[in-house]
Amino acid sequence: MPREYELTDDSVFVVIGSGAGGGTLANELAQKGIDVVCLEAGSRLALADIENDPGLMNQRMNWNDRRLGPPVWLCKTVGGTTMRWSALAPRFQEHEFRPRTTYGHLQGTTLVDWPVTLAELAPYYEKAEFNMGVSGTHDLPPSFETSNFKVLRAGGRKIGYKEITSTRTAINPVAHDGRPGCLQIGFCTSGCRIAAKWSTLYSEIPKAESTGHFELRTNAMALKIVHDDAGSVTGVVYKDADGNTVEQKARAVAVAANVVETTRLLLSSESSKFPDGLGNSTGHVGRNYMRHVFGFTLASMPKPVNFHRGTRISGYIRDEAYHNPERGFAGGYLIEAMALDPAGVLEFYGGWGESTAATMERYDHLAGAFVSGEDPPQASNRISLHPTERDESGLPVPVIDYALHPNSAAMQQHANRKTTELYESLDGKVISTSQGVAVGCHNMGVARMSEKPEDGVTNRWGQTHDLPNLFVSDGSVFTSSAAANPTLTIVALAIRQADHIAERMRRREL
Amino acid sequence: MSTTKTSKSDSVRQHQLALSRRKFLVAAIALSGLAIGMPGLAIVRRAWAQSGTPLEDDVYRALVQMARRLYPYAAISDEVYAEVLDDVLTATVDDEAFVETLRSAEQALNSQQPSDFIDLDTDAQIKSMRAVEQMSFFATIQGAVKFRLYNHPAIWELLDYEGPSYQRGGYLNRGAGEIDWLPEGE
Hints:
heterodimer, A: alpha/beta, five-stranded parallel β-sheet, 16 strands, 24% helix, globular, B: mainly alpha, elongated
């Protein structure tokens, strides 16, 4: 049964955000009998609110608050970006937790190794994969092979790739955990109407509610985290659904508001004791912001593919994921079969006039590959607060500064070349590749984990170095980006963090 | 504090209101067309005029023509391009700055050549558009037209795009994974 806690109840653990990190952490804590209040800035959609209409769903789910800088594509709704994600869920590789050791010094980057190893995270990856229904793990079969995936595999084999798989997607290949198997509806990024794609909206949140140790407050926008003179967090000030500014007392707080909002909240929570914001005594909050090296290659194939029939992402190639400096860059990338609706295609394939219209008229012939590659952290890639501009909540407008590192630019060019080769091997004609910075959907860094406090914001458990009871539980804690899509690792880290928090509570340290 | 649990936010409700309003407008377009048998453009002009957008006829016609030149399909009627523009106007009905952008677009297009944009032949219209494509209004209008045109059922049919599918049980038993031209063994 859902609980209701008093604002004055200082025994509750407050989680800010209900997405991959926050939703998971809240549920894990509630399952252990810890009382949790989860503040979510957005509203709670029912499955019946989810339509196969990207424009409509953007309005229902988008985080549209004003920002300056290159665009990010995030959600303000229960479930956060797990509502939107394409659900590819690969693990990080062992060396990706040790990027500084593996790659050496990369000019202009702030690379450090993670204070966490793959061996340490592996059991949590196991749990995350089970909870999320990741295809090809536990007893789940591989994902359905879409025609877009079959084109990617055929071309990949022709140019010599060996590691091509339709596994590792957190979309139920068959019924699992009370949710149905995928019907190949498409529109995954507009929310999954049948709940076959994992989202905390219909997985972790109702599970947490059934424990009797959890309250979700929707349309509750966190404004400031407050603390006592000793430097311990004591509560969260937020705007409630009725527009009143109230404070929820707390024994501890975890921030999982997705990178931009996590930064804004930590910096906005400045005080006389912490004049530069919370967790920011070494100036790292907002810095080392990473987005992944991003690519999207679209090809017009000789015969129809009909890539709209089925999941948006349906398998990937791992051959380029390894660290192989002979290619001219450090780190690697994944090549993922990705489909788009016609309007989505035109977000990438620009231009206008006869030739654009003619290419689009052969929409059913299109095949597509998304590239996700390691993006090294740079101090100058950062999120900060505008000194004077305020948004409708009265909060400072976030400013995003982001530029591609030369290593990332080299990787992007390599990926463009290889994906072009792949489609040309099947007589396809590439109509579009990515150049430079694209929309940020994979946001990482800004409160990174570091062994030494002077290198980052949080320790190996995602606890801020500065405050004993303030945690960060989203992609903000990533020390480096690795190549893999981030969500699985966010979830694994949140499950691990919950174990740590419960243990510290048991020892009465929190 | 409030303990009310709602499944839909105010913004969702507002959007639904906007949608029903749009449906009403589309119905109004159809009705007015039937009633007086006007050609497509005039029909649509009437409909958005009712919605209160203070956009002049000349500007409207120029923008419909611009929409066609952006993404030209011989098989698609002017009515569809006009519906797309009408959709844009309905969505931005209270946005005076946007309406001003539309006016300045028409002026910019008209000032490229001795004749007004709407009176030029196809090649000359394209030339005028190329001349202004770096101006900020161009991307704004292109973006709005692009999104709505390629979400229009008439275009979907032309592109062999089958659209929303959950109502029909997804594509699992309707062609997903079917491809017969890949090399042997694929």
